[in-house]
Amino acid sequence: MLELDHLAVAYGSITALHDVSLRVDAGAIVTLIGANGAGKSTTLRAISGLLAPRAGSIRFEGQNIAGLPAHRIVEMGISHVPEGRMIFANLTVLENLKMGAYRFKTNPRWSRDLDYVFNVFPRLKERERQAAGTLSGGEQQMLAIGRALTGQPRFLMLDEPSLGIAPILVKTIFEKIVEVNQTLGITVLLVEQNANLALEVSRYGYVLETGRVILHDDSAALRANAQVRHAYLGAG
Ligand SMILES: Nc1ncnc2c1ncn2[C@@H]1O[C@H](COP(=O)(O)OP(=O)(O)OP(=O)(O)O)[C@@H](O)[C@H]1O
Ligand SMILES: [Mg+2]
């Protein structure tokens, strides 16, 4: 469904991605792990059109989307939940969800899309009139994912959904990610520093180090890999 081929991305004179090739098959959950500054968020920003690649290609369902404007990429069915959630704190839960569906403003399916989101996250329904900034961290993450789902994506990218969330809610968030993948059929590219959980729910994984893919394998094999265990799974 998605294929990056020798992707290179720079911020001005600073090269953040040197050489990233990866693929995500339709229906899969694929995870991208790596230390701080490895280039995980940069990879997602390039896919969603927020950064133009310096070299390489990004193919989505066979079409090269590298350099297309972000709104075109959203329209193709790619949705991005950015690191740090970026919800509108002063707007209500419902208003935040509407922002995610802005391109469907006149869409008669809006109430059905809303039901679809509330089905996955009943807690958002209970709190639809509450200011988003007063939600707990985990609830804000649910809102960020819910907002991405109102755009009816076929491909969902999540940037560190477990960041700053209590362990008990992290488990809930990951269960939701699996549910979105399995029951809604949405393909997922997951960026995580919580490598243990990410490799547990994903089928395949890539390890990024200073802008390069240094290792990739089935998630189960990565979890057993001594190098990965030592560097990312906190094992000795
Ligand atoms: N706007 C920017 N301008 C200049 N350099 C940047 C910018 N954004 C990121 N970088 C640099 O690009 C590199 C990759 O950053 P990126 O945010 O992709 O890392 P990451 O793997 O997501 O890290 P983290 O786990 O901390 O979120 C880092 O060296 C970072 O300092
Ligand atoms: Mg990041």
Described by strand count, sense and barrel closure, the largest sheet is:
6 strands, mixed
The CATH topology label is Rossmann fold
| Class from secondary-structure proportions | alpha/beta
Question: Radius of gyration in whole Å, from Cα?
Answer: 17 Å
The arrangement of helices and strands along the chain is: EEEHEEHEHHHHEHEHEEHH
Query: Strands across the major sheet, in which order?
Result: 6-7-8-3-9-10
Instruction: Report how far the terminal alpha carbons are from each other.
Output: 36 Å
Give the total of beta strands.
Answer: 10
The fraction of residues in strands falls at 25-35%
List low-pLDDT spans: none
CATH superfamily placement: P-loop containing nucleotide triphosphate hydrolases
Mean pLDDT equals: 92
The set of bound ligands, ions and cofactors reads: adenosine-5'-triphosphate, magnesium ion
